[in-house]
Amino acid sequence: MCGMSQQPPVRSTGSPPPRPDASMSLLNNVIDHALDDGYAEATARRAAEGGSVPKPLRAKLGLAAGLVLAAAVVTVGAAEARVSAPVVAKERQELIDRIEGENASADELEQDVERIRAEVGERQRAALEQHGGDQAELVALLSGATPVHGPGVKLVVDDAKGSDSGGGGPRESAGFSDTGRVRDRDMQRVVNGLWESGAEAVSINGQRLTSLSAIRAAGDAILVDNRPLVPPYTVLAVGDGQRLATTFQDSADGQYLHALVENFGIRSSISVEGEVRLPAAPSLIVRTAEPRGAGAATPTGRATADKGKATS
Questions:
Q1: What angle do CA 8, 13, 14 make, to 5 degrees?
Q2: Considering only 118-122, 198-202, 282-286, which range has the smallest mean pLDDT?
Q3: Is the confidence at residue 122, as pLDDT, over 50?
Q4: Residue 145 in contact with residue 123, Cβ under 8 Å?
């Protein structure tokens, strides 16, 4: 046996031996961190906030609340409208009743005016017959104080067909907006032509004309003594029918009417009637002619009187 002492074995204090799966570090990392860090932080934050409602759900809840509020507003508005509807209907009915009442009052006043006008006309006619002297009947006839009937002519004047559209020509350049429309100056010439041709009494659309009647225009309407006429214009004239018709057609005014028919399409017809009836004038203005003075006379030696023949 040798004399060498034996030393105990020396043990290494280094790192532990490697793991068997040390070569699969990537797979181990995936297993150890199955939940992404971002998701983990979000979960931890919601847990810290006490579990709040997700945003999509909150949006849906807000939309539902808005719809409920809108429905409530519409319901309240409908209820108020239904409550106020009887009040509005009552006020509307009251307004209608007031309008109808005012219309009735206006109709009554118009009837009173017509009655008084007729009464005044009757008194004027009576005074005219009483103070007319020996020629009271003739004076009443010429002044339009009494209705008349007898032989005469019927003259109808009407606008041209399609006269709503104007055209060129001298009538338009003279202020006419429509060449096919009968104007007040046309009716003035027609009536004056009948008077000059021997008519004893004349009426237009039932409106009796006198020596003081006026034919004027208001816009597109023709007025006779401020009363509007509607075409066609029917002119009745009392007199010797055949002679009156012939004389009128040969006169300057008759030729004027013929020119309107030929150049502007205005329609016209004249016929001889065995009997025509004309009403009395609705109102009269009685005037008395008096001499200027003793021996006073005009240069021709005749006294003057207030009279007139033609309409204007």
A1: 140
A2: 282-286
A3: yes
A4: no
From 266, 249, 267, select the one nearest 194 (Cα to Cα): 249
The sign of the torsion formed by the CA atoms of 229, 232, 238, 240 equals positive
Q: Which residue has the tokens 């539902």?
A: 64
Residue 194: closest CA among 213, 168, 180: 213
CA–CA separation, 25 vs 170, rounded Å? Answer: 113
- As a residue count, the chain comes to 312
Q: Which residues, other chains included, contact 148 with Cβ-Cβ below 8 Å and sequence gap of 6+?
A: 141, 200, 201, 238, 277, 278
For the whole model, what pTM was predicted?
0.51
Residue 201 clears pLDDT 70, i.e. is over it: yes
Gap between the Cα atoms of 276 and 143, Å rounded: 18
Locate 261 and state its tokens. Answer: 């028919």
Instruction: Tell me how crowded residue 232 is: count the other CB atoms within 10 A of its CB.
Output: 14
In this prediction, residues 271-277 reach a mean pLDDT of 91
